[in-house]
Description:
With 328 residues, chain A is an all-alpha fold. Helices cover 75% and strands 0% of the residues of chain A.
Amino acid sequence: MRYVLRRLGFFVLTLWAALTFNFLLPRLMPGNPALAMLGKFHGNLTPQSLNALEILFGVNTHKSLPVQYVDYLHQIVTGNFGTSLDFYPASVTSVISSAIWWTLGLVGVTTVLAFILGTGLGIVAAWRRGGRLDSLLPPVFVVASAVPYFWVGMVLVLVFGIDLHWLPYVDGFYVATDTPGLNPQFIGDVLAHAILPALSLLITTIGTWILTMRNTMITTLAEDYVRMARAKGLPGWRVMLDYAARNAILPNLTGFAMSLGFVVSGAILIEYVFNYPGVGFMLLQAVQGEDYPLMQALFLLITVAVLVAILIADLATALLDPRTREAR
Amino acid sequence: MALQATVEARRLPTNQALNRIGRAVRSNRKATAGTVLLGIFILVALFPGVIAHDSPTLDVYQPHLGLSSAHLLGTTAYGQDMWAQLVWGTRNVMIIAFTVGLAATAIAVLVGIAAAYLGGLWDGSLSVITDVLLVIPLFPLLIVIAGYAHGGSTLVLIVVITATSWSYTARQLRAQALTLRSRDFLEAARVRGERKIYIIVVEVIPTMTSLIVASFLTNALYAVLFASSLQFIGLGDPNTVSWGTMLYWAQNNAALQTGAAMWALAPGACIAALGAAFALLNYAFDEIGNPALRPVRRRSLKQRSVQQGENRA
Amino acid sequence: MLEVSGLSVDYVLPRADVRAVDNVSFTLDRGEFLGIVGESGCGKSTLLFAIAQLLAPPARIAAGSVTFKGTNLVGMTDGQLSAVRWRDMSVVMQSAMNALNPVKSIGAQYRDVMRAHGKTSRDEIGTRSAEVLRMVGIDQAHLRSFPHQLSGGMRQRAMIAMALLFTPDLVIMDEPTSALDVVAQRSLMVQIKELQRTLGFAIIFVTHDMSLVSHFSDRLMVMYAGQVAEFGATRRVFDEPLHPYTKGLLEAFPSIRGPRVPLKGIPGSPPDLSVIPTGCRFHLRCPVAYEPCNQVAPELADQEGTLVRCLRYTQDHSEERSVAL
């Protein structure tokens, strides 16, 4: 119980830190960037948008910093992120909600898949120590983890998209002539467009999980309780899964959460390479278009998503490891 | 037995630790491959003029030339020699890698070991700061910072990446420092009356040499990846000659689609190769530190005794 | 029931193989209690794992056989061994904290092994689990507990109870009392001996504490540097030790009731097994070593029922024996 409370506390703390970062950054930059952005619009902004900008970025305001901070927090908590400048006059929230499903679909599914596959392969590789899988995997994935995410995407685009013309790569997520909706044409196109980005993401992220699982598994296999399980005459697969893997995965769950930061980076870059209209692509567009309200909100969204995932992983650890349930 | 305990807790003077590392590097295949690869890149960064005869920024050539003896990798859409760009770009990348690597590792060592040894409130606050920075997704943060700064020169990249990426290795160093705290030879130093600073610098840090080197490699690797990624999306200075900026220009000119694939493939391959060098060395250090992870000869596996039959026959 | 013949175990290391157990042979009858004692690193635990076929790379059986109830266990696969495992031969390890799966309850771990050997009815499993716990004096409510929730002594007893689930004929114990305090040690030993009396299983008990095991074992084997140094009836070995090493061990333990004598340790430390000294392995620390000891490696000699590996007892050196001992 105390463990859970601690993790919740940490979640809240980090959330607060991210919000504060967000608050301080534009105000710390020399020459508030928001001011420059305002100039672009020659005062064609509604009073609400102007007000939101004031609160979020501290432009045109004479309030003291602490007061600004309170206003800012209030703004965020009520979910008002202002108006997007690139997509004027749409509100930031509505703009984001159009993109978020694409990212959830692509990144969410691929990450889960990569984790399951990666962990599974890691377990098997460690179990068959010295076998072909074990000698092959580490060097391959050590190298693979150093390859920049976008490069894998580009190579895949080149090979499958351009040279072989097998898969579409550039039109985003569906062909413009399709009508969005639950018709087979649309769904088919969406899936076809998702294959290459998903593959890139899978290839680049699976390596870490295979390697860390394998390494913890190897250490776990040397434990006495694994030897004891063998002594009891338990079938091999049960020893591997129930005794070894169940213990080996515990430290990895937290590691999984840590690596989410990198999955996010990979997702952003891959969306960029494939023009996939997800949250990452939108962030980069916002940066290039100096749409600061949108950029800010996306940053918070991504951070919160990662924090929530980490919290879930922590709770899962508490569930799986009875030792954490005792008073620490 | 008391005798064995003393043997285990023997402290490692720096020269002995480095010696061990040297021997291990030579005997481990991954380490040798990594060192050779890294060495090549360092040489290229130091002497680019020797390898590429053209200036990387001169744009007098015919654009979109293919591979030829005059232009080893062809020319870009702006009429620049690609090979020259690749070679001269190495310098920028290596500078970033080593500067960030050293600086981030220095911060990590400071924070990690201080947290472990000062304990109490210091440990609490330093750990919290480390953990928070660890958990906030770095790439989006870098994007936002660079975005506000309207992109930056190499210096800005170095500063920003260093300031945000030290937390992972700091955590690892702290963990190891904590386990060392209870070792006998440190107790001996404390009992001798040595000051804490002395203990940390003279006794602890040399014993952690292997992890500190591994931290440097990790930080350098991520510096290369982060920096190139930022340059790729246009947040570095597009006018510097670097692999990441080459990729940026390549992407902007639809290099893949217009048949100028080499413009994108070559710098990407270099990033991958340099990254692989760091990663291989890092992995090799893992194996050196933890013998259980070393490659196992198939023969000794699952062998109750093949020899058995032979002996009885 | 158990016959170990010429068993040798090697550790396959990059530079050279190291022989951790050298040519050990003995037989064990039903219900017998065999104690194996020696310093850390003498090979006793390795021997135990070799007998139970639990060695893990880089250790492997280099020579010899382990014949249990007529079948040679050496060379059998895990699948073949599972028929014997736990039903006829079970293992108790040193630290229950390390030997029990930390994420499974005690009951679940009992269930595992019973299911693996054919018992699948929940009633059967439940009854038997409660029964063995009662045998060691633990309340059956603890079937739901996790290892870290039990005290050290309880954990150890739970592990012993687990070993008795199928009332095997042989229980191999690797220093099961070392992790406990003296009082818990004694009570555990008494309990083990009592269980042996009622259930009739044989025990091979490895420990470094000679005085502890000597009250309970029928025969005692003293190991040194991977070899058998002395082997015979416990009372004999304890009261009239033949090997200088055994003598040294005994003298290192003060007697609570006897006269106060200065404590004598054995100088030096056990040899590094990758660099074995020539001749007798003990000669560098032996108080009565003489000329041939550093050249001739002694074989086991039968001295009125006790086997001893010392040149002073070998045929041709019987004259020297009466001197200086």
